[in-house]
Design a protein that fits this description.
disordered N terminus; globular; 244 residues; alpha/beta
C-alpha cells in the first residue's frame, strides 16, 4: 500500500489562531481520527508487523489540536486522515503517517529529538506531547516563523525551531535519541547519521531509485553501524536544500 503525502498548494493561508480554542466537538473529531488511525494500522498489520501503535503515541495524537496547524481554508478537513496543503508546496502529513513515524522512534520522556522539516509544527507538537525535547529545522522562513509562534501560543515550551538546511542537521544539540525526516530524500544525509546517538533511531521516507519511496527505519548500533528496515510505501514532498 502506498500512503500519499504529496499535495500541491503554492499559496499559503493563515492558520487558525490558538485563541479560538478547543471544544467538545473538536475533541470528538480527534477521537474519531485516532479510531481511524487504529483501524488502518490493523489493516496494515502484515506490512507493519504490528496490529497497533504505542498507546502513548495514540494518546498524544488525540491531544494535539490538528485544526490549529492547518490553514483556514482546510479547517473542515482538519481531522480527516489525509495530508493537507499548508502553502509553499508543503503539506501537513497524514495523521496515520505522523503516528507511525512517531511510534517507530520508540521515544522515552526526555528524549532529545531532531526533526527535519517543521512545516506547520504538527509533528513537532506530537513529539513534544511525549515529553521529548524537539529541535526542528525548516528551510522555508515563513513556515518556520509561523510554526514557532503557533507552538509557543499552544504552550509547547519543549520545541525550538530554526531556519536552515536539514541536510546539515543541528549539531549544536547532538547527539539525538531520535531523528525524523518529514520529506523524501535519496538517502539519509551523512551529517544526520553522525548526529544520531548510539542506540538511536532515525525515520525517513527514502527514494528507492525506481520512482518509489519507502518509509525507512534506521537503527544505529554501538559500533556505529546502521541497520535499515523498509516499513511502508509512501509518497512525500522532496527534502529541500543542498545535499552537499
Amino acid at each position: 500500500m502506498i500512503v500519499c503525502e504529496r499535495l500541491r498548494g503554492s499559496r499559503p493561508a493563515r492558520s487558525m489562531p490558538a485563541s479560538e480554542g478547543d471544544s467538545a466537538v473538536l475533541a470528538r473529531r480527534r477521537a474519531e481520527m485516532v479510531s481511524k488511525i487504529a483501524a488502518e494500522v490493523r489493516a496494515l498489520r502484515d506490512s507493519l508487523g504490528r496490529a497497533s501503535l504505542d498507546a502513548r503515541v495514540m494518546a498524544a495524537m488525540e491531544r494535539v489540536p490538528r485544526h490549529a496547524f492547518v490553514p483556514v481554508n482546510q479547517q473542515s478537513a482538519a481531522y480527516e486522515n489525509r495530508p493537507l496543503a499548508i502553502g509553499y508546496g508543503q503539506t501537513i502529513s497524514q495523521p496515520l503517517i505522523v503516528a507511525l513515524m512517531t511510534d517507530l522512534l520508540c521515544l522515552e520522556a526526555g528524549a532529545n529529538v531532531l526533526e527535519i522539516g517543521t512545516g506547520s509544527g504538527y509533528q513537532a507538537a506530537v513529539l513534544a506531547e511525549l515529553g521529548a525535547q524537539v529541535h526542528s529545522i525548516e528551510v522555508v522562513d515563513a513556515l518556520a516563523v509561523d510554526a514557532q509562534h503557533r507552538l509557543s501560543a499552544l504552550g509547547y515550551r519543549n520545541v525550538s525551531v530554526q531556519v536552515g538546511d536539514g541536510h546539515r542537521g543541528w549539531a549544536e544539540h547532538a547527539p539525538y535519541d531520535g531523528i525524523i525526516i518529514t520529506a523524501a530524500c535519496d538517502d539519509v544525509p551523512p551529517a544526520l547519521l553522525v548526529q544520531l546517538k548510539t542506540g538511536g533511531r532515525l525515520v525517513a521516507p527514502i527514494r528507492d531509485g525506481l520512482g518509489g519511496q519507502w518509509l525507512t527505519l534506521v537503527e544505529k548500533d554501538s559500533q556505529g553501524r546502521t541497520k535499515r528496515t523498509a516499513v511502508l510505501g509512501v509518497a512525500f514532498v522532496p527534502l529541500v536544500g543542498s545535499s552537499g
